[in-house]
Amino acid sequence: MPVEETIKTSQHFVEKEPYYEAIGDEVDVFSAAYNNHLPILLKGPTGCGKTRFIEYMAWKLQRPMVTVACHDDLTASDLIGRYLVKGGQTVWVDGPLTDAVRNGSICYLDEVVEARKDTSVVIHPLCDDRRILPIEKLGELMQAPPEFCLAISYNPGYQSVLKDLKQSTRQRFVAVEFTYPDSDTELKIILQESQVDKKLGEKIVKFGRMTRNLKGSGLDEGASTRLLVNAGKLIQDGIKPVVATDTAIAHALTDDPDMLQAVHELSRSIF
Q1: Count of CB atoms situated within 10 Å of the CB of 238
Q2: Average pLDDT over residues 97-121
Q3: CA dist list (Å): 63 to 48, 60, 204, 253
Q4: What is the mean pLDDT of residues 94-114?
Q5: Poorest-confidence range of 86-90, 114-118, 223-227?
Q6: Distance of CA 209 to CAs 71, 167, 182, 183, 243, Å?
Q7: Which tens digit of pLDDT belongs to each residue from 120-179?
Q8: Hey, how many other C-beta atoms are within 10 angstroms of the C-beta on 52?
Q9: Do 128 and 199 belong together in one domain?
């Protein structure tokens, strides 16, 4: 006789307040969407703070958080759950989405466009007035509690014909657009996260802005705030600034020798 097994969600609580600098009205919009049981779509470039924002909101709302890093091989069963054999018994094990619905968690599907098209369809009944999760293998329609929230994210810059968010999916969500913060806010983030001094932080911000000007002129993306923080951490730990920006930023952005040389020269002109 199959038995059910669920995952305890206490491990998913964000107990310590994550450091987050708001760049607009995203905190208020998310709170209003949550209060009205609306799913949320976060869109923006890599490393601009989408995941940190979700962690902050999970802490602020005091809800457990379940994160799924979406990929090409992600199946509906990976999200919903499956039967497994344990100790001679057939055991039903909740997937992360079912776990989140069952426990009223915030479920965050990161880079959802990476998932297979047929996989993303399973979230549709959760994203309208029904707020239900059909679990066919159990013959169950699970009603989401008021505390449950579904959030997804993607990077519009990586969209293509093959990897795009279908209108039937995206029009079910409240969309919040993220971008890189302004210079002053980005400086505050770098100073807080890497603990470098202000003068050095200003140079890191300037370097990041210069790499972003190369987007579309040899670089697919400029340096994200995350990469700038990483460089600051290396510098704070004793790595020379030029070496830190080469390893934490330039080589993370491109493998092209000419572009690596161009970014390296930008770094030398500042540091």
Answers
A1: 7
A2: 90
A3: 23, 8, 35, 35
A4: 93
A5: 114-118
A6: 30, 33, 10, 8, 18
A7: 889 999 999 999 999 999 999 999 999 999 999 998 876 554 567 888 888 999 999 999
A8: 18
A9: no
At 113, list the tokens. Answer: 């466009």
Tell me, yes or no, whether 160 and 28 share the same domain. yes
pLDDT per residue as tens digits for the range 76-86: 999 999 999 98
Q: Which of 115, 148, 177 is the last residue of a domain?
A: 177
189 and 154 share one domain: no
User: At 17, which CATH number?
Assistant: 3.40.50.300
Q: Are 189 and 231 in contact (CB under 8 A)?
A: no
Q: Are residues 155 and 94 in the same domain?
A: yes
Residues 236, 206 share a domain: yes
Looking at the structure of the chain, the number of domains it has is: 2
- Looking from the CA of 263 toward its CB, the CA atoms found within 13 Å total 32
Domain that holds residue 249: 183-270
